[in-house]
Amino acid sequence: MRGDHDDLQVHGDWPYCAMMQVACEDKYPNYVVCRGFDPRILKFIDYKENSAEKPGISVAKPFGCRVTSGGAKRYRIGEVFPAFLPTQGTADIDVHYVPPSPVEVKWRLGQNPGVVDGSPYGGPPKCLEDEIAILRDHNGKVINWILVHTENKLFRFQSTEDLIDSDSCEACVRQMSGYWPHTATIYDPNRVYDGMLAGTKGYVEFQEGKYYIVDAKCDPEEIEACECEPSGENDCECSGA
């Protein structure tokens, strides 16, 4: 974009984007190990466990999809997502971007998605004053990429114990797609569903590391049964329906 005598815009870094495929079991709360084509070096980076020649690419999860409570397993091997390289101001490591972000903005990470410092559940900042720190992977390497993905925070559940005179109970919870069945504690802080019996089916919403009941005592015909198997990679740990 040019005027009669000069450019009308300031040219920045290329907004690199790539397609990334989940290549390793989702076991880290803030990122997944993928394989994909890195447009910066024009090379496909493959993944194989314990292989120096195929190290894979650690890619940050979106803040809203990070989890530390109940394990990871939000992503399946083989799933494909777009990813991009974020940039926020000046970093004290690797590379520097000028002009920097204001000092009072605690998000001066350079080409790094960041992680909330001290967050108990791996989610987004609580307020503008929260510090966002450098995100590294299990090898201590700085992570550059972040997945472009939003998660449906609504899950299906089937309670495995009564919810009586309490604000929580155990349940078998799974994603709306049916993936990742697992045992978890579900919460009803206002005791709207007090008296709910074991085997009740419904929906919970994942917020700040916990599952909150949003609808229960639904018509069993409208919600697929929680089919728990005794063994298998994706099976739940509860006793089942």
Radius of gyration: 22 Å
Indicate the low-confidence ranges by residue numbers: 225-241
- The number of distinct structural domains comes to 2
Largest sheet entry: 5 strands, mixed, barrel
| Strand residues, percent | 25-35%
Count of helical regions: 0
What helical percentage do the residues reach? under 10%
End-to-end distance, in Å? 62 Å
Number of strands: 13
Structural class: mainly beta
Order of helices and strands: EEEEEEEEEEEEE
Main-sheet strand order equals 1-2-4-8-5
Average pLDDT metric: 76
Task: Indicate the overall shape.
Answer: globular
Question: Any overview of this molecule?
Answer:
The strands form three sheets. A five-stranded mixed beta barrel has the order 1-2-4-8-5. A five-stranded mixed β-barrel has the order 9-10-11-13-12. It folds into two domains: 15-150, no CATH class; 154-222, OB fold (Dihydrolipoamide Acetyltransferase, E2P) (Beta Barrel). It is globular, with a radius of gyration of 22 Å. Helices cover 0% and strands 28% of the residues. It contains no helices and 13 strands. It has strands at residues 17-22, 31-38, 43-45, 57-60, 80-84, 115-116, 132-133, 145-147, 154-159, 168-175, 182-187, 201-207, 210-216. With 241 residues, the protein is mostly beta strands.
